[in-house]
Structures are given as structure tokens and as C-alpha cells.
Amino acid sequence: MAGLNFLATGAEVRTVEHGGGAMLYDSSRAGNAVPGWLDPDWWRKRGTVTVASEGRGGACLIDADGRSLVLRHYRRGGWAAHLSADRYWWHGAEQTRSFREWHLLYHLHRVGLPVPMPVAAGYRRRGRSYVADLLVQRLPGVRSLASELRSAPVALRTWVAVGRWLRRFHLCGVCHADLNAHNIMLGADDAVWLIDFDRGTLRSPGWWSDANLVRLHRSLVKIAAPLPPERFSAADWQLLLDSYFATRLELQADNVLAFP
Q: Are the CB atoms for 97 and 132 separated by under 8 Å?
């Protein structure tokens, strides 16, 4: 199920070409979309644009024209960033980072999983490389698990909620390529969302889900290292795991384990 090209989309999904690239969007939510939607300067003329405090610096928070959005420019990390900050090798439009993430969010949102609603995605090609951008609906009143951990001890019910939702994603075959505390968002009433699905895939059951959890645990340990010991303990992690595995039993009883 990793090939998102084979997942059907509705008639509301449209693609428009523009100079050197193309934009994919949901016409039911962005009927008046134009390529400028993927340009921070276009939005600055219409409202407020601020740089997000977390991430690699490629995300902008937009409040304009009555909309609250997040526009992310794809940036490389690790050793590849020394070769190019934001250019990727061209392998076709449907293989661009932005189009693949948009399609994944589109399907996850349709089946009711807590992810940002995708609005538009685009790329601009030059020769054998391209740059890409993604526009999503901004989640209201949320903060990352990382920021929550730094500010105060995380409530026990929050660890339970995180474990429960992670298991639901995994049982639906959703592999998050960078599951860390910065990409888990918390809201009121123990609401949990996952964000940043760049390089995310849909997979059959396997050890990848355990690797996801190991990555998250490593992230939490790293963030908590300079903090007071009570901010993140072995008991907190065990509570998350207990909720994670208990949720599997609940969903088995309800017979809702497969991605639609």
C-alpha cells in the first residue's frame, strides 16, 4: 500500500500547471486557488505571515483572507543539506515530496484520522531538480508534545491519549517517517494530532511500527535530558505503551483494524 498513486481521489482534486511547475489542490476547500497560495509574499500582501518556531525553518503561519494556514517549504536535512538546501531530484510530478504528502494527508483526513487538512501542494522544476511547497489548514489551539514537555510535567491522561492514537495510526498502516515529539500536537480535551508526513507511507503490518516507537522514545529522552527528572520518566513511557497495546485489543473487538 506504499504506492499512493493507486489510491483513488475525488473529482474535487485538481491539478493546474504554471510556469515551470504545477499545483495540486482540493477545489471543494480552495475553489479560488492560484499558484500564489504557495508563496509567502503573496500572503503577506493580504494578512500576517510569521515563521513557525519549530522545525527546520521552512514553515510559515498564515492568517489572511479569513484563513488560518501553514505553508511549508520543503528543506533538506542532514548531509544532503550541504549539497542543496531545498532542491530534490526530479522523478516525475507524482513522486514529488509535496504531491506525495498531500495525497497521504488527503486519504488520512477522509478516513477520520487526526491530521491537518491538506489544501494545496506544488512544485517548481528546473532541469533535473525541483523545489516544493505544501499548504495545510492550521490546527487551532495546539502545542507540540515537545513544548508541553519543556514547560511542565505531561498529564498522565495525555500519555494515554498519545499511545491510543499512535496505535490507531499504526493499525491503519500509517508509517510516519519522522515520529518525534515535535510532530505530535496536543489540543483541548486530550485531542492528539500528527503532523509533517513528508516521506510517510501506507504499509502492511510489520516491524516498522516498533521502529516508529523507538524513534519517538529517543526524541523524548533527548528533549528531557536537560529537564528535571520528573518531566519524563520510565513510568510515563510505560503508560504510553500500555495504552498503545490496550488499544489494539479494543480495535480487534470492534473489527476496525484495516485501512479502508
A: yes
